[in-house]
Amino acid sequence: MDIEHISFAVAIGVATASIFSSILITLINNRHQIKLRKMELYEVKRNNIIFKNIESLGKYAASISNICSDYSTPNLKSYSNSFGIALTLVKDSKLIKMMLEFDKLITSHSYNLMNEQYQQMLPYIRTEIERYYQQY
Q1: 50-54 contacts: CB < 8 A, separation 24 or more?
Q2: Torsions phi, psi of 108, nearest 5?
Q3: Under a CB-based contact definition with an 8 Å cutoff, are residues 124 and 105 in contact?
């Protein structure tokens, strides 16, 4: 084999390697971009869930405040809509117990005790909301 054939074979080998390496690099980059995009979407979804949890606890606190100041049908509806959701979000067992007690006060029409119970619950609700903010 003379030098021309060897140099031609080397040139073909280098050209083939450059084509395959560019294809391989493109595939690796695409794969990496897809992983990054999935991570971004997961983070957005997670943040949306956390934000909705914070919003639900805020609505629950507002509905309790509204009931304490005005025991009316719209406020009761707002409370009943937010109570179940808030109850599932709360992790603190003491707050859960207070929430259930407050619900009993509503059903028994104990208006004079509701405001006192609300004042006791409020710091715990704030703590729960702060816990969600720390995850945000």
Answers
A1: 50/132, 50/135, 50/136, 51/136, 53/89, 53/132, 54/129, 54/132, 54/133, 54/136
A2: -95, 5
A3: no
Q: Around 4, how many Cα atoms within 13 Å sit in the side-chain half-sphere? A: 0
CB 80 within 8 A of CB 67: no
Task: Please tell me the distance from the alpha carbon of residue 65 to that of residue 79, in angstroms, as a whole number.
Answer: 10
Q: Which two tokens stand for residue 23?
A: 């294809």
Calpha distance 112→28 (Å, rounded): 67
DSSP label at residue 72? -
User: What sign has the CA pseudo-torsion 12, 14, 19, 23?
Assistant: positive
Q: What is the pLDDT of residues 24-64, one digit of tens each?
A: 999 999 999 999 999 999 999 999 999 999 999 999 999 99
**Dihedral sign from CA coordinates of 39, 40, 41, 42:** positive
